[in-house]
Amino acid sequence: MMSRTHTNEETKIALHEVVAEMYDKIVKGEAPTMTLPVRTKTNIAFDEKLGVYKYGKKRSTRDATSLGSAKQLLRALHVVEFIEEMIDAGKSSTLREMYYISEAWGLGKFGSQNESNNLAEDLEVVTKCLREDFKLRPEEDGARMIGNLTLRERNRRGEWMRINARDDVGDSGYGVPYNVELEKIELLEHDIKFIMAIETGGMFDRLIENGFDEDFNCGLLHLKGQPARSTRRILKRMSEEWDLPVVVFLDGDPWSFRIFASIAYGAIKTAHISEYLATPSATYLGITADDIMAYDLPNDDLSPRDVEALKAELSDPRFADPWWQEQINMMLELGKKAEQQSLAKYGLDFVTDTYLPEKLADLGLA
Amino acid sequence: MSGTAERMAKNQKQVAISEFFEKNKHFLGFDSLTRSLITAVKEAVDNSLDACEEARILPEIRVQITKIDDKKNIVELKSEDNGPGIPQRSIEKVFGQLLFGSRFHAIRQSRGQQGIGITGVVMYSQLTTGRKTHVRSKIATEASAAIVDIGLDTRKNKATKSNETREIWERPDGSLKEHGLEVTTRMKAKYQKGRQSVYQYLRMTSIVNPHADITFVDPEGQTHHWPRVTERLPTKVESIKPHPHGIHLGTLQRMCTESTDSRMTVFLRNNFSGMSTRAAKELLEVAEISEKAKPKSLKPEQYRALLEAFQGERTLNNKPVKLLNPPTNCLSPIEELLIKKGLSKTIDSRFVTTMTRSPTVTQGNPYQVEVGLIFGEGMLADKPVEVLRFANRVPLMYQQGGCLLTKAIESVDWRQYGLDQAGGRGVPKGPAAILVHLASTNVQFTSEAKEALADNSEVLDETRKALLEMGRGLRKHLEKKKKMAKTQEKFELVNDIIPAIAEKSAQILGRPVPELAGSITKIMSAVIAESETVWNKETKKTEVSITLFNYTSRARSYTLLASWPEREGAAMENNNTGGRKEATGVWAWKLETLDPGQTFVIKYTLSGLEKGDWTDTDVFFRGSQDVIGATKMDEKLLEEIRRQEAVRTTDEEETSVESKDVAEVLAEPEVPPPTGQQTLFGGGE
User: Fold this and answer.
1) What gap in Å lies between CA B623 and CA B521, rounded to an integer?
2) Is A107 at the interface with chain B, CB within 8 A?
3) CA B653 – CA B661 distance, rounded (Å)
4) Which of A343, B402, B530, B546 could form a cystine bridge with B602, CB 3.0-4.6 A?
């Protein structure tokens, strides 16, 4: 188990390098700059060693020749100063708190929360530190989990609590905290054969109600749409530390394909830490484009935005393998998409009695 | 003319007048409680404006509405003016007789065109409250004012007078009122706010009557004041004779039977405009009427034949008889500068552009289109623009969608001029108001309600042209604004952000704050001109400052030129940096050297202008390096201005032929100086 965290001193040095780049440019009589990797699909490449997608070599320079970028640089300086203050004071804050604190930064204040989130990511990318190193916490809440697995979580009072995610939790399952690193969570033992990650809360609850986790000896993880970092991280840890297969059960539309890509191959926005968040062994279970036809599922027409997204995926390196190309092209040809819950067409038990067993059997898991 | 009117009124008398009123109240404007009040105000104010105009008095009008009985919807309307007043013996005629008034058959531009006017108000008041209308009138030649209560004997179509007396008319401040009229009347009506309200009617009236001072006290006791913005009264309009293209059979018949002329040729020459002797002879020839025929004794089929000849249905050698156009001096447009002032006083905004087209003729009727647009803060950006429609200086408040003027606005693709418009059709959206005014001797409405102009492809086309031309002014303004915003950004960048970056980075690293000049020159690498034109409330003068910044690494030399309203009578004062006159309305300053990092400031004051007359100064330059915020001087156009100037000085007489203003001529280089002003001052005195 690798540790990605940096010491406070390492973090400060890395941040100072960013500041020095700006300072030195001014001394040279040039416009201050910040150099960072291009964060689009055109600059992600498969890393053979890590088995995930990482940023490539393309760099972009943000220089202070336009008002917008100059303000970004100034904001970055304020953020650096703020992080240093937190490190020195032994405090931490949420990204949202930082957004509000920026009200006092005058010209360097953020226009929106989105800006502050992006800038925190920029700094992560440039310094190769994690936002945990920056003492910044995300706002996003983690997912829910249910199944016969036991872990240890250190609570607010610093005491370790042993929790079984089947016996010690209610119907809503175990809530995954935002920090799932070793200092917070230890994975103890389990009696499951695989983990199933599920996109919608409705489907997650359906499987629990039908007792699917016990019937099929598996752990269920609710992704809540595009999964938060901690959700992806704990999935990766369980898959790696317990050597468990991971299957992903999503809606059948272009956006679900993207969710899968971020789970299995790494998200474009966080490609700098893909090896830390992605689960390369994860398998896409459904809804696939051929499921829509094979099961004659109720469906919707693809919207122009859907079509655009699918076309973009065709040129996304993460979807380069033939299976994905076929699925995407098939969906485009079909012009249709379907939700997980459309399986209810055949009754509430169809998904647990027929659909999932059939799909899992294909993978040798049932 | 009044003889005719009275004769017509007599004919009307057969029907019980109150019944006539009841039946026709929708087109008399009394069909709803809210509209009745607007109509009453409209009749009173129109009368006041017309009377003042005829007597060449600058109008001061005060309208007050008081709620008397909220439950029964009874309100009192008091309207006062400083007009010539009405002689005591004429009061009953003016207020108490339907269809009295000289306007009814005059062919000229006038506000009201139906002649029922204030009598309708007296009648409505009597029908709904049983009360008489109280009138106070003072004429200049008498020491005291006449007081009288007017009612109507609806069977006899006659006014009834009561409580007649005379008294001294004192103003609230104790001074004596010299002349004027005050009408106080109670009626069943409802005061409402919004787009169709008395407030809106008066506000619109004040826009197109910039010479009037209007005060309105609403039922809540709040006073609204629209001050006078010009001392110039509207041009006195001339009556013209009807043009053969615009005449109807009935009118032609009546003109013939009433004529005392001995022969048709004389009749045609005397009674119609656009009629030459040749045309009269040719018309009679194609209508197969003898030139010597007596107009009085024409037969019905001959009227028809003559009308067909008028309208080109009977032809001479396969061609309609050629007629001259009617004279157009019978029109009184508001004119660009005054529209601008009118709009500016009622809507507080930065940019106004206007356009007055030349008068032209449709179906024998002279008409003229004027448009105006006001744009900027203070108006809602995501709502359709406010459409202000006027016919002969009278606001049109109802039936906006069915009106030709609205259709003209909707036919323009406003997106190209910088306004939002879904699909390029319909009323555009944006923080703006569009004014359209049609002046004509014969305004064609869609219905008797006289709230929407009827379709006419020529008028529509003319209105559209005016709007397109005006739109170009808006586009230029918006482009200039965009450019200025960009320059502004650059300044913020080098003046605020870069120093902050330098300071903060130095602080974090614990190093000294670095020198910035190099970075700034590198970032800007341009020469920038910034100009500001502001109205100084205290001195009542317009202050202009132009600053030139050299943000390049080399010394530069330029000649800077600026437009100024010399031809509008402005004087340039406190111009400390000297310079010289380059041409009329163009001043020039020569800068030998402007070192890197150096700035040069020009300041001067313009006097002899009013607020809003000059809000934007165009800056030009001569020199090799481009100047952001200024336009390279087009020497050919400057030549053109000088040439026109020479023509003007050698031909002083021809003042009526206005040549274009400097700013307008300068407005055409490849990169045109964006300004809304060329259309404002281009129209002449």
Assistant:
1) 19
2) yes
3) 18
4) B546
Candidate from A19, A25, A64 with C-beta closest to B497? A64
Residue A46's pLDDT is 82
* Residue A99 is among the residues annotated as catalytic for this protein: no
Minimum Cα–Cα distance from A107: chain B residue: B497
In the numeric block, which tokens belong to residue A152? 């240890």
Strands (E), A223-323: 246-249, 283-286, 300-301
**Is the pTM above the cut of 0.80?**
no
Helix spans in B147-248 (H)? 198-208
- Give the number of other CB atoms < 10 A from CB of residue B469: 14
Q: Residue B682: what pLDDT?
A: 29
Name the interface residues of B facing A (CB cutoff 8 Å): 489-490, 492-493, 496-498, 500-502, 504-509, 511, 514-519, 521-523
Looking at this predicted complex, what is its ipTM? 0.73
Catalytic residue among A100, A276, A295, A355, which? A100
Q: What is the pLDDT of residues A90-109, one digit of tens each?
A: 888 888 889 899 988 888 88
pLDDT tens-place string over residues B43-77: 899 889 988 988 999 999 999 999 998 888 999 99
Among B489, B496, B519, the residue with its CB nearest the CB of A26 is B519
What residues form DSSP beta bridges with B371? B355, B436
Nearest-CA residue of chain B relative to A16? B509
Q: What residues of chain A lie within 8 A of the CB of B506, using their CB?
A: 23
Cα of B498 to nearest chain A Cα, Å: 7
Amino acid present at B45: V
| Distance separating alpha carbons of residues A22 and A79, to the nearest angstrom | 14
Residue type, A301: D
CB contact (8 A) between residue A23 and residue B493: no
- For residue A311, the SS3 value is helix
Contact A180, A230 (CB under 8 A): yes
What is the identity of the amino acid at B619? V
Query: Pairing between strand B145-153 and B213-217?
Result: unpaired
pLDDT in tens, B645-659: 777 666 544 443 333
| Residues sharing a CB contact under 8 Å with residue B42, sequence separation 6 or more, in sequence order | B29, B201, B394
Report the pLDDT averaged over residues B426-450. Answer: 86
What are the backbone angles phi and psi of residue B502, rounded to the nearest 5°?
Answer: -60, -45
Distance CA A192, CA A175 (A): 19
Q: Does any CB of chain B come closer than 8 Å to the CB of residue A73?
A: yes
Phi, psi dihedral angles at B556 (to 5 degrees):
-125, 155
Order of strands across the sheet that contains A144-146: A174-175, A144-146, A218-222, A194-198, A246-249, A283-286
Give the strands of the sheet with B145-153, arranged side by side: B158-167, B145-153, B133-138, B180-188, B74-81, B60-69, B213-217, B223-226
Which helix (H) or strand (E) covers residue A334, if one does? helix A322-334
Distance from A102 to chain B by nearest Cα, in Å?
A: 15
Provide the token pair at B225. 């004041």
Which residue bears the tokens 């920090």? A179
If one counts every other C-beta atom within 10 angstroms of the C-beta of residue B141, the result is: 8
SS3 B563: strand
Out of A67, A70, A106, closest to residue B501 by CB: A70
- Which residue of chain B has the CA closest to A82? B508
Helices (H), B324-456: 336-346, 404-410
A104–B contact, CB cutoff 8 A: no
Range of lowest pLDDT (A19-23, B148-152, B374-378, B497-501): B374-378
Q: What is the pLDDT of residues A202-227, one digit of tens each?
A: 999 999 999 999 999 999 999 988 89
Q: Which residue has the tokens 């009695």?
A: A353
Region of B230 on the Ramachandran plot (φ > 0 left; ψ -120 to 50 alpha; else beta) = beta
